[in-house]
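note to self — DONT lose this again. spent like an hour looking for the file last time. sequence + predicted structure for the chain T wanted, 134 res
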Amino acid sequence: MSGLFRFPTSENLVALAQETIDAKKEGKAFSNPYGCYYEEDETPPAHLEIVKDAGVYLMSGVEESELSRGLNEEGEKLPLVEYAQGFGPNVELGGDDYVEVLEISDKGLAMLVKGATLQVVITEDAIEMDILPA
């Protein structure tokens, strides 16, 4: 799926960026979605994840994220997410679901904490990110 996805500043976006910064400083592990982004002996770098299933959203790349938006019916934590502008949970996009890793620089994460907007462009060949100052 191709598209332009904007994530304007929000409480959730700030929390996701701050958790990434803190986890990196504390040496916490980051996930390797579906085991297909990094070799088994590689340590995944600090990152956020962009997911397409029911809508398009960002979630933490911290392996054991403490951020939650509540519990599901089985009492399990639901991960905190931030939906792309115009691509909420009720937007049907068709095609396969996926997750992509977004490695964002320390400077970029700090900008997101301070209110910047994250813009992600996904094409069949590439993923490009821009962080637009507040």
